[in-house]
Every structure is written in C-alpha cells, then in structure tokens.
What does this fold into?
Amino acid sequence: MVNEKKTAPKDLSAASLLVVSGRDGRPGSPLNRPLVPASNFILGTERAYSRDDGTPTWEALEEIVGLLEGGHTVAFSSGMAGVAAVFDQLRVGSKVLLPDDCYQGVVGLAELGNQKGMWSLQRLAVDDTEGWVRACVDADLIWLESPSNPLLTVADVRAICSAARKPTSLLAVDNTFATSLNQRPLDLGADFSFQSATKFIGGHSDLLAGVVTVRREDLRAALRCSRELSGATPGALEAFLAVRGARTMALRLERAQANAMSLAERLAAHPRVGRVRYPGLSSHPTHAIARDQLRGFGTIISFDVRGDAAAADAVCSRLGLIHHATSLGAVESTIERRAAIPGQEHLPPSLLRLSVGIENVDELWADLEAALRD
Ligand SMILES: *Cc1c(COP(=O)(O)O)cnc(C)c1O
It folds into this structure.
C-alpha cells in the first residue's frame, strides 16, 4: 500500500531500532519526523489539542523509547515532570519506598509530599535486598534507582520486583544511569521505567525532557492524564533534538562505556585516588548483580581524591579537556564534587562524579593524570 505508514519491526536490535523507528516511512514524507510546533490541529481526527493529544514530534520520541523499553512511552517536559507524573498516581496516605542513595530531585519531591502529609516515606539502602523485600509488603510506591546516583550501587531489581506486594502497589525504576540499552526494567518486573531524556537520549547537554514507559494500558492513560492536567508537555524543539540524539545513542554509549571502564581501572591504580566506584570493576561491592542484570556498566564513575574537599576541588579546576560541570550522559566528559551541592553534604567530601564522554580515552586519562599530579 503506497500510503500506509511502515512500522519498524519489533525484533530488531536496539542499535537498529534507534535509527529506523520514529519515522513516517510513507512515500513523499520527510525521512525525518519534522519539528511540529503546534498547539492545535484541524478537527476531524482524534488529534485536536497538543497538550491532550500529543504531536507527531513527541510521538517519534515516544515510539523510539517505547520500542527500546518494550512498552508504551509518555514523554514529558523534563525528567522531573515524568517523576512527578508517577508520584501523581498516589492517593493521600500512601507509603513510598525510596533508596538512601537517589537522585536529589526525586528525594526533594518525595520529602515535600511527606512533609505535607500526602504520603509516608521510608528510605532503604540500595543493596539491602532483604530490607526492600520486607518493606514492599505494604508499600504503595516502590521507587528504585539502579545504578544509584552518585554512589553507583546496583540494586537487585529483579528480586525486589518479585517481592510480595499489594495488587494496587506500583514499582518504578529510574533507568537514567543504565539507559534502555543496558537495562529494561519492564522485563525485570517494574510497572514504570523512567529516564531523564536530558541525559543519554539527548546526549548533547542541550535539552530537558523525560520519558516514562509502561506496559499496562491503564497506567499509560493515567500518565497521559497527568501530563494533560499538569501541562508538563515536551517542547517541540526538545522532542526533535531528543530524537536526533537517540539516533546515535548506541554508538555514543558504546564508546563512552569503553572509555569509562578504561578510566576506572586507571583511576583505581592511581596513588592519589582512594576508592573508585564503578559497577564494572570486580572490586565493586555490587559487581556480581551488575554483571547479571546489566548489559553494560555505564559511563559514570565516582572516585575519592586522597585528601580533603579542597584537594578534590583543585583537581576539578586543573582539568582542561574534562569540563567542570554538572549533569551527565553527554558526548562531553563532565566532573563535579557532589558534596559541594546543597543537600549532598552527607557524601564523602572529596568524592568526584565523572560522566565519561566520547573523547579519545588516552587524552582523557592524560587530563586526569595531570590534574591529579598537582
Ligand atoms: C537528571 C536526572 C533526573 C531528573 O531529570 P531532569 O531531566 O533533570 O528533570 C532524574 N533521575 C536521574 C538519575 C537523573 O540523572
């Protein structure tokens, strides 16, 4: 049929899906899904108003991520907007479980709701699988993040997903650090797989967006309803850029991940470096679960500089190729001292979180070595 839209085959590898999906495929249609800055559409189909019904550009992003994660994806204006849509599913008086090491924005949102009396909050150590399994019994929302930020502890997601819980309970995994290329939370038993598309999907530090993926049709409708009523819709340009970023995501991740493994090993052997936290190192406390559960170990490394906070700050200021900047998952390497951030004072004072990019690995190492030499 000449005018039928071709759909991407579901059995392709993630690397190919990232490239071929999210396109129209009809003769005469643009090869790339266009950037559609539209609030409203001519009436006559199910698409009337973009906040309610989406746009072709958002849908390209949703199609790509949905195929990668094995579910239906709803895109949001930022990662936190997606997180808020998941928390929006809770009723007053719910019980929420959250890791002790967890993205700060999620902690802030959960604590605010707790202070307002909307839900109670219990924090658990990421690697305390038995504790999670026990606490799941009467929890309403189980929020996992694995590997965790910034200590990179890997949770036993499969074991926690199979814990006994209330039929109405919801389990969400923050998949931002792993990405859908290294971990598919819905396959492990999660109800929601969340990613900040600001990070690896966008990959170029130039947009904010979030994606939440579910298998259940009722949860998809609930997320779309939250987006419609909160107005947390993706920008047209951001969705377009996120799709553009997704095209190269497998290549970027492969290169950055190989760089990260190599740098983690070299850092671990450096006399001015204390503990190195990277799930790919056999010395990592949750390396065994990481090997079993993840297809790759990611691009984030946390390491302690020997000495105090000032010594770690000095390392950051001496780096040239690696940018002293927050965030992660982009083509460029970035580093920051996490305990310097308000609310993160509990972290080791000289811990640096390095997001490894796609630069030449020997040049990255030369930069780190020179900065550590003082
Ligand atoms: C960045 C991030 C978020 C929040 O996403 P935004 O796009 O910044 O709103 C949530 N979780 C993790 C692990 C993140 O790294």
Q: What stands out?
A: The radius of gyration is 21 Å.
